[in-house]
Amino acid sequence: MSPRPGPGFVGPGMGRGMGWGRMRFEDSKQRPQISKEILIRILKYLVPYWKQQIIILLCLLAISGLDLIPPIITKNIIDVAIKNKDMALLGFLTLASIAATILSGLISVGQNYVTTWMSKHIILDVRNQMYRHLQYMSLKFFSNEKTGEIISRLNNDIHGIEGIISGTLVNIVYNLFSLVLTLTALFSMNWKLAILGTFLVPFFVLPTRQVGKMRWRLASETHQKMAEMNQHIQETLGISGVILTKIFTREEAEIKKFHDINLEVIKLQIRENMVGRWFFMLLRTISVLGPSIIYFVGGYLVIKDELTVGTVVTFVTLLTRLYGPVSHLSNLHVDITRSFALFERIFDYLDREPDIKDLPEAVELPPISGKIEFDHVYFSYDGENPTLEDITFSVEPGQMIAIVGPTGAGKTTIAYLVPRLYEPTSGRILIDGRDIRTVTLKSLRSQIGMVTQDPYLFNATIRENILYGKPDATEEEMIAACKAAQIHDFISSLPEGYDTVVGERGIKLSGGEKQRIAIARVLLSNPRIIILDEATSSLDSHTEALIQKALEALLSGRTSIVIAHRLSTILAAHRILVIDNGRIVESGTHHELLKNNGLYSILYREQFKPQLTGLTDSYLA
Ligand code: ADP
User: Fold this and answer.
1) How far apart, in whole angstroms, are the C-alpha atoms of residue 228 and residue 296?
2) N or C: which end of the chain has fewer CB within 10 A?
3) Domain CATH code at residue 382
């Protein structure tokens, strides 16, 4: 597993090292190390595209070769055509020079297309791989990770690696080719002048590297701030966030907070842009200095008849072409480190094994009759503090068990363990006598239906939401499910019927409507086991009656575990489990439990009895 980026990627703003105004940068300890393993992993993404890479290489070789032709032609124009007053040769050489430039341009368009195509396809591969991986991560991962961070890695980081492929890699190759070809040309023309011209090269390398490092640091900080900004947008402009902001009239506070983050991002970006401008000024001076020296020394040699004017002019042209690749290549380390940082963040997610997955020997769970057994189940969210302890109970096929208890007792956690959304720390859960860890997740979950307190609906049509559980269901099946869930009449009364878009998280629907749509969705997929977390909010008597009927359709003939908040449900349950502090403290029927005079009777008096409407006390007691 690769190390998590943590502070290594962001790094504190200050440290020892060279000062640069307010900005300091630290030594390479803070930056991700370029390791062989990561390099090999990155290269693996390139392997499928080896054909494109050969084309790109050939193109780059051709471009850097063709780019040398005009300066060399210039030498012949000056030394031969002009000197001999040969008009025909002058015309031919000029045309040849133009042709070489056009050809190089055309090849570079083609090379750009192939590079873009390839890098986009690598992005496609990585992004799909990452999304697939995330889809199979367990709930634990998503409850620990920030959504903004996930989006940032899936979008920005993966987008960032495109730049590496189309920019960095191509630049390395092109600059290497250019450097070697230009140096060969320079030395073959006049080695003494060549040494004179290249002795300035180290002056390019050093400052460029330092500036590059500083840029890297600022870019990382910007990156982190951008992720923060994403998170802020995500939290405050999502529907739940918007409601919260409005209710607490925190709009101005959120605007201010956003403004601050936004400002920090911009400040960092300005600094990133400005950093090293002094160095670049110095570089420009040096790049003028080199040619001046060559003109001076070369001019002297021309005067002494040891060199031609054409050679000096071509030499200077070639020399200026040398400095670009040199500064690019000396900055390479920074570019590569930056790329590695992005890849590390991507690999960090890819390396996290889903903690709940099929065992290699997992088998299909055949169609079940629906017996559920918890056998001394223990569970902890953090591996330290127990959330559930020694939970043992069983539900016969077709029976309903109600779970009641104070908030935070562990009721939801018990419900989540059945479809293996979390895994017990110890103990077993059996369905039809089989340990659920020995069967495939798909075959297990496809036989379990779940309706949560605040059911999640996608921002799509009602039809799409209902068909989510069984995309191939017929119109008749869907309508039958909606009728059973007591929601068909409501949907039909909408102007757009089943094609009504529900808004983000179903905001356009009432709680009761959302619940009945969720019930219809589960009914349509027709599972043998139902996990139901009843809504706590009280509803008007008409809606209550509708929900009641919908639940009857949902629960009848199926095994169910219901986190009960309604009197009618606990009365209908075959058995009630009373949970407190992660343990089963009582269990039995309503009448048995009332007689016990324990926690249940307290809950009953405080929570359930007030719901009493038509039923008499004597019936209940
Ligand atoms: P209930 O449904 O009875 O209200 P829960 O099963 O939701 O209780 O929670 C039981 C305990 O586990 C609570 O103390 C809660 O804070 C804790 N808990 C719930 N979900 C998580 C989670 N994802 N990570 C860590 N602790 C959690």
Assistant:
1) 56
2) N
3) 3.40.50.300
